[in-house]
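Pasting two entries for a bug report.
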Amino acid sequence: MTPRMTRRQFLRVSAGAGAGAAAGLAATGAAAAPLMPAAPQAGVSPAPSAPEVLIPQRAKPLVIGSANAHKFRNGGPRTCVEEVFERIVRGDDVLSSIVAGVNILELDPEEDSVGYGGLPNGEGVVQLDASVMHGPKRRAGAVAALEGVRTPSNVAQVVMEHTDHHLLVGQDAQGFARRMGFRIEDDLNTERSRRLWLEWRRRIDPDHWLDPEKRSEAAERARERMVAEGLVMRESLYGTVHCSAMNAGGEICGATSTSGLAWKIPGRVGDSPILGAGLYVDGDVGAAGSTGRGEANLFGLCSFLIVERMRAGVHPKDAAMEALRRIRSNTIEKRLRNSRGEPNFQVSFYMMNRRGEHAGVALYPGSNYAICTEGGARLAPMEALLSGGPRD
């Protein structure tokens, strides 16, 4: 009786036979032909097929962001998304690359919704918010109502790297930044941001103070008139920069930075520094970030929602549309609705997943988002949930 061959012996013999066949082909110079299944012999059941083995492929580097991420250069050769792409393809850490790109906007005095020269709060003080998330390391950091530091994204990264915490705020965030070696300035206003604040103040407060209801109405009318007159861009009222990126290894990180709502109540914090609202990254799934009315986004933690929907296999665009529909259904206060009963504000989302699929969506049409790939940087139109505009 012939002894049965063990599985280990079978594999060893099979491997040897395969190597011998390959050597024979190499010796004769014959080209390797594709393996075809042999016809089953009569009375012999075919062997079960081996399970499919999925071999991971390298990802294509990708950077996306809000439209201003491909507008401002601060006198340099590249925009934010171009700078980030340049760095990640040479092997730099993805988050550090993003922060370096966001710094371009934070330091540019012409960008009045981010960093230095950002539109100040109601008392004329520039207060900055930022958050960062590192997908592979499962780490995050953020600062809110930070004064005196031009690049809050850097401080948020230091919070992530040097503390056990995710969020520092106000004067204590500034104290932390000072102790970590950041330069603290007395005033981050530029001549332009201060002039716009004075104009807004003059329009809403000609007799020093109004009752709360009238003051709120006057502030809103003043903002709208200044937009209509071209003194300030509408996107600057809720201006923010968001940027997410993925390198060739599939590592995803993101950052969001803002000077917040123009002429806000001092101490007001929107969605930008709040993990799950203005930014959320899961290294196994993807990233999402936002710009626009922070309070609307905060209520539903929409960036977290978007990433969770992508985790379930939903395309980035469809995941974000679900978040926008939730914002729409949650907007029930009359003061926040236009004559059509729809939200009278804009919210935008920017998403990517690990497959390299990405999208930019907004409540209303007319805006763009930034993309940078090996083919270069460009702006692409946002897809909208609603038609028309927030104010008609």
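Entry 2 (this is the one that rendered wrong in the viewer):
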Amino acid sequence: MSESIEQVLTFSSPETGDLLTAVLREGAQAMLTRAIRAEVDEWIAGHAHLRDDRGRQQVVRNGHLPKRQVLSGLGPVEVTQPRVHDRRPAGQREKFSSRILPPYLRKAKSIEDLIPWLYLKGISTGDMSEALEALLGPGVAGLSATTVTRLKSGWEGDYQAWSTRSLAEKRYVYLWADGVYFNVRLADPGNERQCILVLMGATEAGVKELIAICDGYRESEQSWSDLLGDCKARGLTIDPKLATGDGALGFWAALAKVYPGTQPQRCWTHKTANVLNKMPKGLHGRAKSMIHQIWMAETKASANQAFDVFCQTFRAKYAAATECLEKDRTELLAFYEFPAEHWVHLRTSNPIESVFSTVRLRTNKTRGCGSRVACLTMVFKLMEDASKSWRVLNGAALIADVVAGIVFVDGLKVAA
């Protein structure tokens, strides 16, 4: 960098005295300037063969365009772009447009992405300018609450495109389903809570993916039928091998109609909570430990034995609790017919629940979403962001055996 340290200091903030940021910003400005100059030189060199009758080159540099600032992750960076002059007659001229610095660009794409990301993480539109000034330095312009609202409006288009994409090339071996309620501040009277239905799946490669998100009327059979039927209509025609979800009757009834070959697995987390709700709090610790022994048993026979012990222990005094558990015995123990390496993923709908905890934190920050569409698109964007960190299923190579119909007993393959 040829400039003296005194020149660089002019870029540092007098309020913060951040010399490091000033040096980085100066370097970014120099690199951007060189890149744009090289782009202009390449354009002119590509037109060097164009000459008039006197041999003069027709496409040349002609001074510079007015300086402008581009907001970047380092704060505002001042850019000077060479001007290109095409001296050919009208109708033959070509207009130069920089791919690096398009006309009217005022913010780097990273800033465009940062704004909605900050909103998703809990920064309200009213606090956005203050938050961005803390990150990018004082004097940040053009980032008002209106700007944030405009950027958020693009999410609805993203969601619509995603929710209508083709699923013809997909096959999901496992499914997880759940529904969560959110407060909507601008909802119709008497309908303040919105139910978001979410469907996740594991591919043949063991990769977890978000399949569908929609809002429904509670967790009704009709709502789930609409969601599953839409997935099937978009190409998801092969029945998954197993689906994990809570006890909501709507999902299971819809699943049996749309994907009758899919085996149901009730979520142990939801079932445990339902059983404990029917027992005194003083017994929760003991009862939870006994339930834990059921679904952590190494074999299905041991699980059934622990199942019987729980029911015999509490049936006399807490029949409602034991009935709640026992009525779904088959569905609760379905995972034993699949590879043991997959059990940790199949026994609960936690893959969805863990993501929804982030969604709840965000909506609690704003005391609910402003509208139905805002709620739906926010859930979509948060889950889309979370999906980037989802890990591949344990024992992913065994999914091929599941697809091939190989029999598993107590998590182990049965020899042919």
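Dev reply: Rendering is fixed now. As a check, the viewer should reflect this: DSSP finds 16 helices and eleven strands in the chain.
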